[in-house]
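Supplementary Text 2. Reproducibility record for the structural model of the 434-residue chain.

All settings were left at their defaults, and a single model was retained for analysis rather than an ensemble. We include the record here because the model underlies the residue-level annotations in Supplementary Table 4.
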Amino acid sequence: MKVLIIGSGLKEAALIWKLRASEKYSGIEVLLAPGNQALAEHAEILDCELNDPNRLLEIAIARNIHLTIVGEAELFTKGIVDLFRENGKLILGPTKAAAMLEASNLFARDFAYRNEIPSPRFVCFENKVVAEAFLERASFPIRICADQEFETNTPARVACDVAEAQKLIQTMFKNRFLQRTSSKVIFEEVIEGPRITINTICDGERALSLLPVQTYRETNENDGYQDMGAYAPTPVLTTELMKEIRATILDPSIKALAEDGCAYTGILAFDIVLDERDHNKPKLIKYRTCLADSDAQVILPLLDEDLFELITASASEDLGFYKEGLHKYLGSALAVNVIAADAVLGFGQNLAAIDAMRSEQKNLEENFSGLPLLFYGLAAANNGSQGNQTEVFGATAVAENLLDAQILAYKLADKISLPSKYFETNIGDAGMIV
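Retained model, structure tokens:
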């Protein structure tokens, strides 16, 4: 059985680890495109362009791939799922129409508004002068984003005053002109409160909840945010709150998409904030069509289902076997993402260093209760230069409780050797203050 995974980051490394951990399918052969050489002992690395669905289909056919897993959301907007299905190839993900939930902020906001899904209030502008005039009566802080972030490569920002907002919209409209896109600019209210992410796996009719996670993202002036880590489960999400989220956000979204003729399959992530100004009511912030790196690092070790079977069922549009829900391991998982402070071109040739870190990982596993996991990936560098990448290590730990997982993950993070590195030092702290 051959599985093609498209991507080269931490989530792809976590997916390979989980697939290889299968007790039912020990003979799974994984191909990774474009991948990185640190994973060469676990997967065949293919040197190919990520942005060409037709070329990826050729590979899937030529190599007799049974199942394809896409880790790059932009490929969904290019119709890779539609193309693969037309040619009889199993692939995990949404159609081009359903992928508009992430590809277009305006589509997502309008979709939520039409279907009475609680989300931030928003306005949209095509004209810079009109947008600037609106600022005179706007309430701050305000979130400003391009409609189609994939096209404009302009991440969302939060402006705290008129001057900051004017600077942001000037940049966004300038990028829109230079890149010849029709992407509009959206202003949204900023909702304050605890944030959680609920990833689901869907088959067009139902959305099965994976373990909810608390994620950490660092904002910077170049690329919007970096995924710094996560932990699961999150104690802020009670049984009653989860029922409310399912009734007001998850189920209405899946039902409305099906009614609109774009039934959703694959991973659908819901970024949710508990609105402190509205009695902690859950509000939808964003839809995402792929697992984030840190989501995968903490969800997959705690997932008791066979990943290959689960993904195949979603890609086949039939999750009926799992209609009672998904099983989860008892315990907690925490991931700390360690990022190279200086960008490198491609793979940093640190195979010897990676081997040394894996040796440290084994030492930790022998001397502490819990399971330490080391993941390696490549990510776009902070300066956003085309082809420029930086190394990212995921130090994940699974233990009986969150404190033990935190201690073990940070011990592993400290062992990661890079010329310069940085990581968040408080991941999991909030989960121990209930």
